[in-house]
């Protein structure tokens, strides 16, 4: 099987995921009237910003990449298929989701789904990168697991 992706593409997608997360959590912090939830959302937004910085640094360290394709357009088609299926594919979708939510609990439940989708995405993508890049992908996966745990705990407190 030819390599379609290397860690640089995964990290580029991770950077966008983190930007979406920043937009989502900042919008949540503006919307909620619960001080504890607002604090939580602001902390999550800051973690997303930190992750974006870390992933940007990783991307720079990994260098440039030229995709290996078996036919013209294969790479672009695969990336489009992956991105178009995302729960919150861009920052505007993240903002809209927060605004449409009927409650803080709904926003947290959506955030949990977003983080799970991101974890699944990185786990699935790991098989498309050379094994030498696996530690980078594993780091991305661990970061998402931490978000899932924090959101799950908050959701339980809200029940």
> Percent of residues in beta strands?
under 5%
Element pattern in H and E? HHHHHH
The count of domains is: 1
What is the C-level CATH assignment? Mainly Alpha
Radius of gyration: 16 Å
Quaternary structure of the protein: single chain
What's this entry about, in short?
This protein has 159 residues and is mainly alpha-helical. 76% of the residues lie in helices and 0% in strands. The chain is built from six helices and no strands.
Top keywords for this entry?
single chain, 159 residues, mainly alpha, Ferritin
Describe this structure as you would to a colleague:
It contains 6 helices and no strands. It has one domain: Ferritin, core subunit, four-helix bundle (Ferritin, Up-down Bundle). It is an all-alpha fold and 159 residues long. The model has no long low-confidence stretch (mean pLDDT 83). The longest helix is centred in the N-terminal third of the chain and has 28 residues. The N and C termini lie far apart (47 Å).
